[in-house]
Amino acid sequence: MEQRVHKWKSGADVMARWRTVNAPKTITRYDLRGAVEFENEPIEKHRGKQKQTKWVPPSEDPFYQQKWAYWRKIFAESGKDLI
Fold it and tell me: Domain spans of the chain?
């Protein structure tokens, strides 16, 4: 008797299966030659640290203010020629 290979019906099936799998706690990294760089180290040690920068809204950003002041000046000067 032929054994059937399970085929996923949709992306939702894949996501449901993915959610049931436990997240790894350790990581092993290999270099390009296949040699082990480090083995079974905690993932937290290798996660990137996010920069603690404060978001500045464009209306308060000095670069944004200068850019639009320049364009306002250009449009104000070009409007004089039309009158």
Answer: 11-46+54-82
Q: What single-letter amino acid sits at 12?
A: A
Choose among 23, 56, 59: nearest CA to 42.
Answer: 23
Q: Round to whole Å and give the CA distance between 27 and 43.
A: 6
pLDDT tens profile 23-58: 889 989 899 999 999 899 998 887 776 666 778 888
Distance between the two ends of the chain, CA-based, in angstroms?
89
Contact by Cβ (8 Å): 28, 39: yes
Average pLDDT over residues 44-73: 83
Cβ atoms of 22 and 16 closer than 8 Å:
no
E strand or H helix at 64: helix 62-82
